[in-house]
Amino acid sequence: MTRKIIAAWLWAGLLAAPACGADKELPTFTDAKAAGEDYAVQGEYLGEVQRNDDKMMVGVQVIALGGGKFRAEVFQGGLPGEGWDRGKPQHSAEGKLENGEVVFIGGEGAKGVVKDGAMTISNSSGRTLGTLPRVERTSKTEGEEPPDGATVLFDGTSADNFVEGKLAEENLLLSGCASEQEFGDHKMHLEFRTPFMPTASGQERGNSGVYLQDRYEIQVLDSFGLEGANNECGGVYGMKAPSVNMCYPPLAWQTYDVDFTAAKFDDAGKKSSNARLTLYHNGVKIYDDIELPAHTPGGAAKEAPGIGPLKLQDHGNPVVFRNIWVVEK
Fold it and tell me: Strands 271-273 and 308-312, how do they pair?
């Protein structure tokens, strides 16, 4: 397969599966079994594609848009955080269902078919050049146990450690609450899950937020397949974009591992040093000891001396959390 055909395929569109039959305006799913065929096709695909005498690793993220429509993000080298990073080639394409199969056609007759959990790539003569199985990545810190001395804020048994804390299905913590305990410098682990909302977009698609000290928001959003902007998943809202978009598909469990140093103030209440943040999203470092020069909107009115709570923002979507613990520094 020539580089030209590979490039044409990378710009190609994936054709999709039927939309799920829920509320026509804004279908929302918290259970993968009820999410329908669109959800079964959405996800990540990874494999090698023949290129002349060698092979090229290719990762594809297929994003369901509802109504049998899909968008594909295609990455040369692998998937984000595992072979692909910002600056490497990436291409987008759109598609729809055709004749009961998920099919795309690229330049010079290159063809891809998504069927039975894999994407098969062939050239114009019908020769198979590669198969990309559908993969389900998990964070290496998912399920991580709290170390000795950690403060366990939520382990699934009770929401009593949170003001306005409420349990959702499966003993999960629903967004829209703040910790009773307040913190200064600390490390934190938490796990979150966004709903599957195929017809929603932007800030309406699985939105919540993790507010450190109720002052600095780390965005939670279904940003699977998006650019990785500062208002998308992993972004310090409106301030800093992640080094790579590590967002998994909706309904997959994801992790944030935080190392936070609070802003410091002198005796007169004047800030003497900015807050600092190191953050791992799904086990990949997306910030390395960055400065947070100001607070972000939606939480406390301003930066101030002293400790503050962990707030889990309610944005009207059923985002849930589990396994939250803190180690004070």
Answer: unpaired
- Give 179-182 contacts, CB < 8 A, sequence gap 24+: 179/153, 179/309, 179/310, 179/311, 180/309, 181/151, 181/153, 181/309, 181/326, 182/213, 182/306, 182/307, 182/308, 182/309
- Give the three-state DSSP class for 7: helix
Alpha-carbon separation of residue 104 from 13, 60, 121, 128, 274 (angstroms): 5, 13, 9, 14, 49
Rounded Cα distance, 59 and 226, in Å = 14
Q: Which residues of 53-67 are buried (b: 16+ CB within 10 A; e: fewer)?
A: eeebbbbbbbbbbbb
Q: Could you give the 3-state DSSP secondary structure of residue 239?
A: coil
Nearest in space to 247 (alpha carbons), one of 210, 281, 298: 281
Pairing of β 118-122 and β 284-292: unpaired
**From CA 163, how far away is CA 179, in angstroms rounded?**
6
Measured CA distances, 59 to 75, 90, 252, 303 (Å):
5, 10, 18, 41
Of the ranges 3-17, 116-130, 140-154, 215-229, which one carries the lowest mean pLDDT score?
3-17
Closest to 9 measured CA to CA, from 81, 86, 91 = 91
Region for residue 171 given its phi and psi (left: phi exceeds 0; alpha: psi -120 to 50; beta: otherwise): left
Residue in the structure block whose two tokens are 């990545």: 137
Checking if the pLDDT of 230 tops 60, the result is yes
pTM of the model: 0.90
Q: What b-and-e string marks burial along 99-123, b requiring 16 or more CB atoms within 10 Å of the CB?
A: eeebbbbbeeebbbbbeeeebbbbb
Q: Tell me the per-residue pLDDT of 31-55, one tens digit each, with 9 for 90 and over.
A: 999 998 889 889 999 999 988 889 9
Report d(CA 65, CA 226) in Å as an integer. Answer: 13
